[in-house]
Amino acid sequence: MAKVSLDTLKSAVAEKTIESLNGAEPLSVQEKPLPEPKIDVLGRAYATGKRKNAIARVWIKPGTGKVTVNGRDWKVYFARPVLRMLMNQPFEVANRNEQYDVVCTVAGGGLSGQAGAVRHGISKALTYYEPGLRAVLKKEGFMTRDARIVERKKYGLKKARRSFQFSKR
What we know:
alpha+beta
């Protein structure tokens, strides 16, 4: 290998720095182009969401804000206001209230897990429809799959961590 002097390296770095300052943008900072929207022939974006044991399949398309869960209106299916609020969060964060119609099928788990799965699915479908929203939704944590699941029961114990009642006598 040929030895390169320190002065040669410094001058090369200085030239690159001057080029990057005079030119368009620095070499280290380059923005990626946004990906193309993933829309089917019917104009819908599809995504799946998961939470605990619940799996939701979600389709969104531009509309008036009608939400259908398993063939029923979402206010009937998710009767508790907390669950409806949880499901509507991605639209509120993205300022897209009542701009999309949502059709989803959800199975497994309980109502809380199902609402979380639908929220995850709506967030993913929104980013497929409008890729520019990904940063906003990711910052709020809606794009991340919540990996917390029920801990398994261990033998010799009553539950996952609870032991049987101990009697001294």
